[in-house]
Amino acid sequence: MEHHKNQPSTVILVTGARGQIGTELVAALRKVYGRKQVIATDLHDAAAIPDQQRPYHQLNVLDKDDLESLVVTYGVTQIYHLAATLSAKGEEAPLKAWHLNMQSLLNILEVAKDHKLDKVFWPSSIAVFGPSTARKISPQDALLDPQTVYGISKEAGEQWCAYYREHYGLDVRSLRYPGLISYSAPAGGGTTDYAVAIFHEALQNGSYECYLNPDTALPMMYMDDAVRATLELMNAPKEALKERGAYNIGALSFTPAELAIALKMHIPDFTISYNADKRQSIANSWPAGVDDAVARHDWNWQPEYDLTAMTKDMFDHLEPVYK
Ligand code: AKB
């Protein structure tokens, strides 16, 4: 039976709840379902978590017994599994990243299957694409040839999700997130993180040294759009979702030079310099944009934030912090 979003029986567990996506997704889920219906979990010590951010539990997603005991104790009906090591950090310790990303997903899928959970959300990424994908805009059904361990874990994860869906009837849903831009929590360990760091450095120092070349276009999205996309996908009727893997979702595509121009509208004397590092080769393997026609068709996906609106909203929230 599908739980309607307003039924009190919906209990959601979120892993990686203190991360860049988790911070905002937990808040959005609590608005819809109520605070107590959303159990936040992460590696941080529970003692440090303020009351208004509870229920919160310290959880290492590699510990399947702990995960299972939370699911049973709270009568969890849905899991949003966000904990992962991202692309740049993953290259520093590939086997560790593989183990975390894959084993945690398998733990979630197993527990969800065994306890007959209603739904699971697991994010994939544009990191599934590689050099054989059309550089300008990647189709939904592109050949996946990821170049990073993170990307390989996302490609394999898409296959595992499809396996559990097909073999066990588990309702697991997934999006290929582009680089995400937000003001609440820092991005960490990704290749697209520059698009968040640049705002903080611009406001703090008036300048930024970018680790990608000026003309490196990548798919990006404002967090409000990403959170809305996630909730819309999770609330879409199951029969409408025809995609076997994860859905491409597009919003923005810009280069560091273009983002710098948008920032200059707010800080006219902002300066940017470039000093490409290892992350450049990861960025070079990703497309500049994605074709999201299938998501638009299946569950009416529509982005709302363009570059100007995103930049303005970032400044509206961050300017008071640095005053
Ligand atoms: C990263 O840069 O690794 C992530 C992603 C695109 O999945 N932001």
TrEMBL record:
Any Gene Ontology biological process: L-threonine catabolic process
SUPFAM superfamilies assigned to the protein according to its UniProt record, in alphabetical order: NAD(P)-binding Rossmann-fold domains
UniProt GO molecular function: L-threonine 3-dehydrogenase activity
Gene3D superfamilies attached to this UniProt entry: NAD(P)-binding Rossmann-like Domain (3.40.50.720)
Record-annotated NAD-dependent epimerase/dehydratase domain positions: 12-250
Alphabetical list of Pfam families matching this protein: Epimerase
Sections of the chain in a coiled coil: none
Recorded superkingdom: Bacteria
Entry similarity comment: Belongs to the NAD(P)-dependent epimerase/dehydratase family.
Name listed for the protein in its UniProt record: Nucleoside-diphosphate-sugar epimerase
Source species: Mucilaginibacter gossypiicola
